[in-house]
Write a structure and sequence with these properties.
The complex is a heterodimer. By secondary structure, chain A is an alpha/beta fold. Chain A is about 60% helix and about 5% strand. Chain A has a seven-stranded mixed β-sheet. Chain A has a three-stranded antiparallel β-sheet with strand order 5-6-8, with helices on one face. In chain A, helix 2 crosses helix 11, helix 16 runs antiparallel to helix 19 and helix 18 runs antiparallel to helix 19. In chain B, helix 2 runs antiparallel to helix 5. The chains are: A alpha/beta, B alpha/beta. Chain B: GO terms for molecular function: guanyl-nucleotide exchange factor activity; translation initiation factor activity.
């Protein structure tokens, strides 16, 4: 195994001679070789490889590559690989990071795989081989351009055979060498096997090349160190292959090693077919499963039409910045803004207010959507408003204006304000002395209910469960604590611990869907499920105007993606960063340069530069879906209903309300 | 106003005179009687008297669930029709007519349910029923009339002895019936093909309020994957949404509360064993181990008999959540539990 890695690492290195890029390439490669294997489900192997490599070679650049990645990355990459979220082809840097990160602990922990021993044994050989290759006269002919070497690395990253392929680009010398070397390594010392995979990899390699261009700059930094290495394609390859043959018996012994090679072929094919999409994905940092969702939006008036009413613009901006947050608040704010817009509206000549109103409001609505995806509550309210407008096309201007204003006021009063009062009074029946009520994040209705219960003199305790990154529960906690309600505050991670003493769970809702599913703040499903697990009643408070005729089976089909920066850029992440540096410095004096670079890089938190990390994508989903069986009861203004009755309410009750 | 009309007394005589009458129907009938005797001259006075009467009825019995279902239904019926009142007297007359026709139709409900339920009873099956329910008995009688051959296990239902009554009725219909202990449900469940229970009330989510013991039968049935069917007339649907057993209107602080341990020992225990100063639960256990067991056992016996006497603290009904119920046979059709909510919303909104 090691030989392969080594070779892989070095073939590019050789190239590097001419091109400065090589060194990162080499380091990456070595680790990369491991990574694809890991992707194919042979993690221990990878671990060993990486261990060997980092431990023995202890090259500054390798460490460099590793050090520049955060500790978080390895996990991410493996996670994504597991779910097929990353390009196999692009997993290089992260895997390298992983290898290094994991190196020391893995060494300590005995691997089930026999490779470890090999690795240990081979370590020395590895270094030797390296030296050999280094000392061997560089063969300029084989040396490809910096780009090429980079590509080699990239392909290597994705799948070992690729590495071979990359080198193959420069046909005989470097190519064969690397291919040969890789093959045995990957295929468990079977030269033949190595050749096969290389063929399909060529295509992907060219793509990899292109990708590599992007990475060039990054690579150059680390490349300086390695520039001095002589790299000879042929000789290096031969030298490399020798250790391979020497070790071939060992690798072949372990079945696990031979499999990756075979599976790698499949992986390549898969990677090629999706590589186009993946490429786009990587550029935009969007995640495959969620590509259909709008990317996070940011407050921006530049794209807004000029004739928008300032009140609406204002509300839009506030929503984009999450200053107005929560289904009720957003709906009320929107309606009030529209109210102002209608008030200030001047009918254009040759038109009537009611006929022109819809055209007038449409850009306002679409502006709000550009600020943040529309809440279900807002959608329903706007639909109602449009319905009223469409119903009264023949009214004189001033009558129509006052009618619409009145309808808006009535909607807010009947469907939101009064509804909340009714829900509160109904909810009070379900809170008894001695209850321990758990709630998640913050819902205006739940807050009102709990405060009312306290005001009524019911003696109960509240556990506020909260979560990153928004910590909305703190607001609720503040309100309850001010009112004198005994409270406990925990994060979602402690849910299992606190659930033991809970007697009721009361949750808010963003929307209730027609199949009875609850669509609410991300994390709600976990709370509801863990309560259901203990047969604790889960009470959802939801006004009927939030009912949706949509049906959704999971949280993927429809959701909202929040700003991913929220996940990584906060003060708490500095902790992780410092610990990373500590490990780097412990690793040895040779890594001092790496640590230094690392230090300069991560001044704003360990993942502040996550956008630079090619294989790291962040997902900040704002909502999740709780299936109906986890909800005991929904408290609405029309009474307590099971959540499966949502369509009944939509069918029987809402037409009545619209009149 | 019904000054000298006693709605509660009417209700009780109705139940006594016609044992086939179920509580909600009797309640509606007594409310109709109230209207007949009503001398109210204004709408609001009239409404007030009806509300008063239904409140009286509800508070007159310990277990008011099915009764309140009838009262609520009638109230809803009255208020829904009160919008378009031209002539107060004629409106009162229509109310009486409709109320009476409802009472008459209520009887037909059971036959309809029986017809709907019979196809579910397979030849050669063994059915487990709980206590006594008129509608369940009728269903089984009908099935027997239709030449279905089946056997019935009926739980004794120790509080009301309803099982014995059921067994009498069923044996009279020629159905082989065995009375089992309430505690033997788990024992017989493997031999049982389906569980049939009646209902005091069907709540909003399709759950069931029924004579105590239904819930554990449902749990046992669920655990062994046997179908658990509830049989209930639609006038037993109530607008309640209990979250658990302790959320029922029949629950109060006395229900199954822990009696104070030292009531009887105050005199006995310290006298028997002077070294035991304070009288607590600990005293009790010590006392029973002491040589003076006889005294303490006598005390214990007293305690138990006292518990028997104060059986009011034992719940009469329990609540079976909808996820344990396979189907509900009602006169509106065979419903899933969530279908109940559908019907209730249609009725009350």
């Amino acid at each position: 195994m090691d030989p392969k890695k080594k070779t892989v690492g070095f073939a590019p290195d050789n190239d590097v001679n001419t091109a400065d890029l090589a060194s990162p390439g080499s380091s990456n490669n070595s680790s990369t070789v491991g990574s694809p294997v890991s992707a194919l489900g042979n993690t221990p192997d990878i671990g060993t490889h990486s261990v060997t490599f980092s431990a023995t070679t202890a090259e500054p650049r390798t460490i460099n590559a590793a050090g520049s990645r955060s500790s978080y990355e390895p996990m991410k990459s493996s996670y994504e690989e597991q779910w097929g979220l990353t390009d196999r082809t692009s997993s290089s840097s992260s895997s390298a990071g992983k290898a290094h990160k994991l190196a020391s602990p893995r060494e300590g922990s005995g691997f089930p795989n026999s490779n470890k021993d090999q690795a240990a044994g081979s370590n020395k050989k590895d270094t030797k081989g390296k030296r050999n290759s280094a000392s061997s006269p560089g063969n300029p002919g084989t040396s490809s351009t910096g780009k090429e070497s980079g590509s080699g690395k990239a392909s290597g990253l994705c799948i070992q055979p690729n590495v071979g392929a990359s080198s193959k680009d420069s046909p005989q010398s470097g190519g064969t060498a690397s291919a040969g070397s890789t093959g045995p390594g990957s295929a468990g010392g079977k030269p033949d096997g190595s050749q096969k995979p290389s063929a399909p990899s060529q295509k992907s390699m060219t793509k990899a090349e292109r990708r590599e261009l992007q990475e060039k700059q990054k690579a150059e930094k680390a490349a300086r160190v390695s520039a001095g290495l002589p790299a000879s394609g042929k000789k290096a390859a031969q030298i490399v292959s020798q250790p391979n043959s020497g070790f071939s018996p060992n690798p072949s012994k372990s079945l696990a090693t031979s499999f990756p090679g075979v599976e790698a072929e499949k992986a390549i094919a898969a990677a090629e077919s999706t590589s186009q999409a993946k490429r786009r994905e990587r550029l935009t940092k969007e995640i495959g499963l969620f590509a259909h969702l709008d990317p996070p939006k940011f407050a921006n008036t530049a794209s807004a039409p000029k004739d928008l009413h300032p009140a609406v613009v204002n509300v839009g901006l506030q929503m984009a910045q999450f200053k107005i947050c929560g289904a009720n608040a957003r709906c009320v704010a929107t309606l009030n803004a529209f109210r102002k817009a209608i008030q200030d509206y001047q009918t254009p000549p040759n038109n009537t207010l009611s006929r022109h109103m819809q055209t007038y409001l449409n850009p306002h609505i679409s502006y709000l959507v550009t600020c943040r995806p529309m809440a279900v509550s807002m959608g329903n309210a706007i639909r109602y408003l449009k319905y009223e407008i469409g119903k009264n096309l023949e009214l004189p201007d001033e009558d129509a204006r006052s009618l619409f204003l009145e309808k808006i006021d009535n909607f807010i009063r009947d469907r939101i304000t009064m509804a909340d009062q009714v829900i509160t009074s109904l909810g009070l029946q379900k809170i008894q002395d001695g209850d321990v009520i758990l709630t998640y994040a913050r819902s205006s209705v739940v807050e009102g209910l709990l405060l009312a219960a306290h005001a009524k003199g019911i003696k109960f305790k509240v556990i506020v469960v909260d979560s990153r990154p928004r910590f909305e529960g703190k607001q609720l906690l503040r309100a309850l604590a001010n009112a004198g309600v005994p409270c406990t505050y925990v994060l979602l991670t402690a849910i299992g611990h606190v659930m033991r003493e809970v007697s009721k769970v009361i949750l808010g809702a963003h929307s209730l869907l027609s199949n009875g599913a609850l669509y609410s703040r991300a994390g709600t499903a976990v709370v509801a499920m863990s309560a259901h697990e203990r047969k604790i009643p889960v009470i959802v408070c939801c006004e009927t105007y939030k009912f949706s005729d949509r049906v959704q089976l999971d949280s993927f089909v429809q959701n909202e993606i929040g700003n991913p920066d929220e996940l990584v850029n906060d003060q708490y992440n500095n902790y992780g960063h410092s610990s990373t540096r500590y490990h780097d410095s412990v690793r040895g004096s040779s890594s001092s340069t790496a640590a230094a670079t690392n230090g300069t890089k991560g001044s704003g938190g360990v993942l502040s530069d996550w956008k630079e990390l090619r294989d790291l994508k962040l997902l900040n989903l704002l909502y999740d879906l709780t299936p109906s069986e986890f909800v005991t009861v929904v408290i609405t203004e029309v009474g307590l209903i099971p959540c499966t009755s949502v369509p009944v309410i939509l069918r029987e009750f809402l037409p009545m309300m619209q009149q | 106003m019904a000054e000298n009309f006693d709605v509660v007394a009417t209700y009780k005589t109705l139940l006594l005179t016609s044992p086939e009458l179920s509580m909600p129907v009797a309640a509606i009938q007594s409310l109709v009687e109230l209207i007949k005797h009503s001398k109210a001259t204004t709408m609001s006075e009239f409404m007030l008297s009806i509300k008063d009467a239904s409140q009286q009825l509800k508070s007159s019995v310990r277990n008011s669930i099915s009764l309140s279902a009838g009262c609520d239904l009638f109230l809803r019926f009255v208020t829904r029709n009160s919008q378009d009142v031209a002539d107060f007297e004629s409106w009162k007359r229509t109310l009486i007519v409709r109320g009476q026709s409802f009472v008459e139709k209520a009887d037909a409900c059971r036959y309809k349910i029986a017809d709907l339920g019979v196809p579910f009873i397979k030849d050669g099956s063994v059915i487990l029923i709980h206590a006594h329910s008129r509608v369940v008995s009728l269903l089984l009688q009908k099935a027997a009339e239709n030449h279905k051959r089946f056997k019935v296990f009926v739980t004794e239902s120790s509080q009301t002895q309803g099982g014995i009554q059921s067994a009498k009725v069923l044996r009279a219909a020629g159905i082989p019936t065995t009375i089992i202990l309430d505690a033997a449900v788990g024992y017989v469940i493997d031999k049982v093909d389906m569980v049939l229970v009646g209902a005091e009330g069907v709540v909003e989510n399709g759950g069931l309020i029924n004579q105590i013991g239904s819930y554990q039968m449902a749990i046992v049935a669920k655990a062994t994957n046997k179908p658990f069917y509830a049989v209930a007339e639609s006038y037993k649907f109530v607008r309640l949404f209990p979250l658990n057993q302790y959320d029922l209107p029949t629950y109060n602080a006395d229900t199954l509360s822990f009696q104070e341990l030292n009531v009887d020992y105050d005199e006995n225990a310290p006298n028997a064993d002077g070294s035991l100063g304070t009288v607590t639960g600990k005293t009790r256990s010590l006392a029973s181990d002491s040589p003076l067991t006889a005294t303490s056992q006598a005390a214990l016996h007293m305690k138990v008999s006292e518990d028997r006497a104060s059986q009011g603290s034992n719940p009469l009904v329990d609540y079976t959540p909808p996820n344990y119920i396979t189907l509900l046979f009602t006169d509106l059709g065979v419903l899933t539990p969530s279908g109940v909510s559908d019907e209730l919303i249609k009725l009350y909104l």
